[in-house]
Amino acid sequence: MTTLNLTLLGAFREITAAELPPVTSAHSGRPLRRYALQLHVPDERHQELDAELKAAATPDGDHLQGSDAAWRVAEGWTASSQGRRPEIYVYRIEIQEVEVLYAEALEVEGLRVVPGMYRERADEDTITVTVVAELSGEDDEHLEELLRKPGAWYDVTRRGISDTPVRMRFGRCVWQRTEEGGRRHLLELVGDEGSTETAPSALDLAVRPRLDRALEQVAAHTGALSRLLEELRAGGVLSESAVKAVEAAAAPRPLTPREQRELSRTDRLSDYWS
User: Fold this and answer.
1) pTM of the predicted model as reported, rounded to 2 decimal places
2) Tens digits of per-residue pLDDT, 206-219?
3) C-alpha radius of gyration, the chain, whole number
């Protein structure tokens, strides 16, 4: 048995706990401590404790605060009443150490991304990273080169969490321009290499392939307008060859990587951080 210092019901308390075998973190690979607790709470406060334990059991909830760590409550905790009124409720719970997951930098293919905002989750050992960062110049160009290879896998190192690279691919990536002339990116990286491919959702299928075809048409018309302006500036009068050139430019075609990235631009990057 050991003694833990935990904040419960608005006070810092010393609680006797039984140590359980640790679990290995899917994020860093280090062992995370686990304990079993038994709490005795009077009737008038058991609903308050219920609310605290429910919040501490959610992945992003208000975890229990200890002297050296935060603790998540494992699902399946129990409470039973004993004795005559005023009754005493006996709680049996398990808690697990919560990791602080914030990378100092992401390193991928020679590119170093320093997060302004960072979030990392693991679902059945599949790590998903979401990061907001500002890039400019060569770093921004380097990122765009990586994004032009949809579905490509890269070794990603999350400095400050683990020095062991994880194989990851880029997911949804949106961006907005900054006042300084650079770009602010929201990047999603997913480490699901080797997992079974997920079938498209009903919503995704509902808007395709019409949305894909509409995007191709928009890009084609944009190219036609640019070509038309070039011809007007260069010749001053639309000749037959100029008409044919405009018609050729308006023909539907696959999007270029640059055009695909332009469709990911947003004026409100914060809307995608939830």
Assistant:
1) 0.74
2) 777 888 888 888 88
3) 27
